[in-house]
């Protein structure tokens, strides 16, 4: 389980993820962001709690045990690879961003959505990040990319499309932010390495733009933590 995936194995993992029929199922980029949030966060979330979030349904969409075991082997080895990068002082965490056809640079939107879904697995423990402006700054790159193409113009990040240089800077910021959050939450994880499996969790981060923001400010989400418009 400590062996990093080969390029061929990453292709296989991506193919398995593409087979999941749910609209909420993750692709490889989104799962990478999801894993990064869970690993860098304040508490350990067990696979029994988060796996169904990856395939988007309560029931595992596998044809047989061998199919499931292959997915778990590939996914957990990738999890361990991210954990090694974040834990090691000699390694740099680099998000796995997929390059889209006819685009020179990856966009990072799916990775950011996956990260925010990971935050949603233990929203209460992350709340202090949303309540403090200095701490929230560590999430700005994620929030900017999550809402870049929102159907609500008020939620969109850019008033004008960013230059390739700015987009590259924001995508690099995903890795920097993850490392900073991992370091910030280190003491939290040492104090509370895992919560009981019976603890109730909210596993969705799909917040209505007109609902109260989860930071507790009393403002609508689109006018609070969801408002990261950049000129």
- CATH architecture descriptor: Up-down Bundle
Describe the global form.
globular
Domain tally: 1
Q: What is the β-strand count? A: 0
The major pleated sheet works out as: none
Q: In angstroms, what separates the terminal alpha carbons?
A: 45 Å
Tally of individual helices: 10
The overall pLDDT average reads 84
CATH first level: Mainly Alpha
CATH level 3 topology: Four Helix Bundle (Hemerythrin (Met), subunit A)
Radius of gyration computed on alpha carbons: 17 Å
Note down, in words, how this protein is organized.
This protein has 231 residues and is an all-alpha fold. Helix content is 51%, strand content 0%. Helix 2 crosses helix 5, helix 5 crosses helix 8 and helix 8 packs across helix 9.
């Amino acid at each position: 389980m400590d062996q990093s995936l080969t390029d061929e194995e990453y292709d296989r993992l991506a193919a398995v993820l593409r087979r999941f029929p749910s609209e909420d199922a993750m692709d490889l980029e989104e799962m990478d962001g999801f894993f990064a949030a869970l690993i860098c966060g304040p508490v350990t979330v067990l696979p029994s709690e988060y796996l169904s979030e990856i395939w988007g349904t309560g029931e595992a969409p596998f044809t047989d045990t061998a199919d499931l075991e292959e997915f778990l082997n590939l996914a957990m080895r990738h999890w361990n690879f991210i954990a090694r990068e974040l834990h090691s002082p000699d390694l740099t965490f680099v998000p796995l961003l997929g390059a889209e056809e006819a685009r020179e640079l990856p966009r990072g939107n799916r990775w950011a959505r996956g990260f925010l879904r990971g935050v949603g697995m233990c929203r209460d423990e992350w709340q202090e990040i949303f309540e403090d402006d200095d701490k929230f700054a560590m999430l700005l790159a994620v929030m900017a990319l999550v809402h870049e193409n929102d159907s609500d113009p008020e939620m969109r990040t850019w008033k004008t499309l960013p230059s390739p240089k700015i987009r590259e800077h924001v995508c690099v910021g995903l890795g920097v932010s993850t490392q900073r959050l991992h370091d910030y939450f280190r003491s939290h994880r040492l104090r509370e390495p895992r919560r009981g499996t019976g603890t109730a969790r909210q596993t969705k981060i799909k917040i209505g733009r007109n609902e109260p923001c989860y930071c507790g400010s009393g403002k609508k989400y689109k006018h609070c933590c969801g408002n990261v418009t950049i000129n």
